[in-house]
Amino acid sequence: MLMKGKRLLIAALAVTAPLVAGAAAAQDKGLISIIVNDTSNPYWFTEGKIAEATAEELGYEANVSSHKGDTNTESNQVDTAITNQAEAIILDPANADGSIGAVRKAVDAGIPVFIVNAEINQQGLAKAQLVSNNAQGAALGAQQWVQSVGDEAKYVELKGAPSDNNAATRSNGYETVLSQYPSLERVGSDVANWDRTQGYSKMQSMLQANPDVDGVISGNDEMALGAIAALKEAGKLDDVVVGGFDGSPDAVEAVRAGEMAYTVLQPVAIFAEEAVRMADTFVRTGETGIEGEKKLFDCMLVTAENVDQYTDPFVLEQ
């Protein structure tokens, strides 16, 4: 199932490949360097591929690399972009604080940086930060989770990497909603670093401590899918409500199969494309086209009721 989203996206991109190649040959605007987190995750894979296809459509050479959350790797990738005289860098940062130096290095070299998906904790360096409205998405997901599990339950939470501000924003958003229900009891929480394997092992441990758990609320889909695997193995999935966050193809299939109650879809395909178009605008005009530095993109729910409207990776037709 993990490759399904990739195959769908590659097929869609293949249709436009001749047009993209022609555009790139007709106008050589230079290089746009695209640095994402981990392309083995379908969310970041899509982010990189959409950004790459958009850059090539606009007449740029595009290079996609992944730092896998390591700031040293990220710094080396920024060095490479500087050496290659990139016109712009599209960056999904490795660390809210730890990536600031790499961004400053690019800016000092005269290369504009456009942040996508995860913020850095300093304003005024990047030309723009384009991210999902994580607080809105977390509230949306938590409300749906309560609707699914009821207002009296024992639950556990799987949290993302502490170096990513999105993890805290989502967890705080969940807490804001769930704390309104005094009969909801969180009996366990753990960090699984956005990873499916860690979600599986952390869920196993929390199940041993709390075998009567009623629900799992997760900071992303990969951790939720790991939890589902652990619950299946323990024969408990039918009794436990699981909610995710991202809108990944595997999570959507889990919603379709009745294994996951919902996922909160982040419009990564939309903001990855917009970041590249914004970079092109800036390279040509010196303007981003937006007021301020930060732009938020609202999330959407994928449930059993609307899952058939999910037609492409990370796209929900309205």
Automatic annotation (TrEMBL):
Transmembrane segments: none
Primary location: other
UniProt superkingdom: Bacteria
Gene3D superfamilies: 3.40.50.2300
Alphabetical GO biological process terms: transmembrane transport
Limits of the Periplasmic binding protein domain: 32-284
InterPro entries: Peripla_BP_I (IPR028082), SBP_2_dom (IPR025997)
Pfam families per record: Peripla_BP_4
Segment forming the signal sequence: 1-23
One Gene Ontology MF term: carbohydrate binding
Keyword Cytoplasm included in the entry's annotation: no
GO cellular component: cell envelope
Subcellular location: Cell envelope
UniProt keyword list: Signal
Family: Belongs to the bacterial solute-binding protein 2 family.
PANTHER family reported in the protein's UniProt record: D-ALLOSE-BINDING PERIPLASMIC PROTEIN-RELATED (PTHR46847)
Protein name: ABC-type transport system periplasmic substrate-binding protein
Organism, scientific name: Halomonas elongata (strain ATCC 33173 / DSM 2581 / NBRC 15536 / NCIMB 2198 / 1H9)
